[in-house]
Design goal:
Blueprint (H helix, E strand, L loop, with lengths): L10 E4 L7 H7 L4 E5 L4 H4 L2 H11 L3 E5 L8 H14 L3 E6 L1 H13 L7 H4 L11 E5 L11 E6 L4 E6 L7 E4 L9 H19 L7 H23 L4 H14 L13 H13 L3 H16 L5 H12 L7 H17 L16 H11 L11 H10 L2
Parallel strand pairs: 1-8, 2-3, 2-4, 4-5, 5-8
Antiparallel strand pairs: 6-7
Length: 388
């Protein structure tokens, strides 16, 4: 097991009607001027927008709004939000929505403290040295952005989708009420669950094999997703299912599972290229690329980890072997299909038109991706072609 530092300062309020803590938490932080960031119409349809605004008005909190954040949040929204913050002396950014809204808000909070172009953070031109406080109200179980320091932003002009990471961008508190996910559609519920699972896969398939406890924690989160996603899809207001998926989302990417491990992240970086060019739903892209990546990296030396997952997730009890590992990947594909996720790029109308450009982007920005097995641009292209 590798040495590690674990720090998770985000205060989490989990359970029914936790919106009740919002006013007191803002008071504790002395945040009297707030930017509310949200997506398009869902926040208002579910009534959560009205509850937030009523709290602002009751407590005499000055607020501005940034709405319309896209599922793949754009740098344009970040620039607009930072401008609002600077012009109105905003003291806290409140993200109410899914991971895209949370990611956008993190970038806004950092950009509000920076005089240059916020895209500088994504391309590595500048480091984030400070940010406004960020708080979140989660409405989709998926990204884990509610308690981590990362965000992913899309530059539609340059066709790039790149991460940023800073401890300054960790939310100070997050409100996690599973009831706020009751109205999430079956498709988005499935896509969010695949995102959770992919985060865990990226940490489970590591370059070191000596973090036994971390692997068992990973398996527990993955089993939770497999166990509950179908119930959440079938009956959207099933609290037990929604609660377990929401907690799985948070644990899946709050750094706990990566303790002692050399993690991978090749699948995510490849999918980011796809969704930068095609504005693809992240979880849908991950369901496709995950399967292709697994089949590409599986070999005679690493099949044990795949077999362990087969036993945990799908009760595949036969003796570990290379063939059993292949059967596990086939069973995972069947599971993705069962919950309504695509498993081939052709299903989402993606061709090989931009594959060369995607691989060139990866070469220029990263050189190689992954640690479970290092992948060069030619490897990435083969994975993409195998996904068609």
């Amino acid at each position: 097991m590798k040495d590690f530092k674990f720090h998770s300062p985000t205060k989490l309020f989990f359970g029914k009607d936790q919106i009740k803590v919002l006013a007191n938490q803002l008071k504790t932080l002395n945040a009297r001027r707030v930017l509310l960031v949200y997506g398009k119409s869902s926040l208002k349809k579910m009534g959560l927008y009205d509850r937030i605004i009523s709290i602002f008005k009751e407590k005499d909190i000055f607020f501005k709004e940034l709405s319309g954040v896209k599922p793949n949040p754009s740098i344009e929204s970040v620039r607009e939000g930072a401008k609002i913050c600077k012009e109105n002396n905003i003291e806290l950014v409140l993200a109410a929505g899914a991971g895209s809204v949370l990611d956008c808000s993190k970038a806004i909070a950092a950009a509000a403290k920076y005089e240059g172009d916020p895209w500088d953070f994504n391309i590595g031109k500048k480091r984030i040295t400070s940010a406004l406080p960020i708080a979140t109200i989660l409405t989709l179980s998926a990204t884990g952005s509610e308690s981590n320091a990362g965000a992913v932003i899309t530059n539609e002009e340059t066709k790039q989708k790149l991460p940023l990471h800073s401890e300054h961008c960790k939310p100070v508190f997050s409100i996690l009420d599973p009831q706020n996910t009751f109205s999430v559609s079956p498709y988005q519920t499935a896509a969010g669950t695949v995102d959770i699972m992919s985060h865990v896969f990226e940490q489970y398939f590591s370059a070191n094999d000596d973090a036994y406890i971390s692997d068992r924690l990973c398996e527990g989160v993955l089993k939770t997703c497999v166990n509950y996603v179908k119930d959440a899809i079938k009956k959207g207001d099933d609290y037990e299912s929604r609660a377990n998926l929401m907690w799985a989302s948070t644990i899946g990417l709050n750094n706990l599972l990566s303790c002692g491990k050399i993690t991978d992240w090749a699948t995510h970086l490849i999918e980011h290229e796809l969704s930068a060019y095609y504005d693809l739903t992240h979880g849908a892209g991950l369901s496709i690329i995950t399967l292709s990546w697994m089949r590409y990296v599986l070999d005679k030396d690493n099949y044990q980890k795949f077999c362990d997952l087969g036993k945990t997730l799908f009760d595949m009890d036969e003796q570990a072997s290379y063939d059993k590992a292949k059967r596990f990947i086939d069973r995972l594909e069947k599971f993705f299909l069962e919950i309504g996720m695509p498993v081939k790029l052709s299903e989402v109308n993606i061709t090989d038109e931009y594959f060369d450009d995607m691989c060139e982007n990866i070469k220029m920005v990263f050189g190689t991706v992954g640690n479970f097995r290092k992948l060069y641009p030619d490897d990435v292209r083969r994975i993409l072609v195998n996904s068609l």
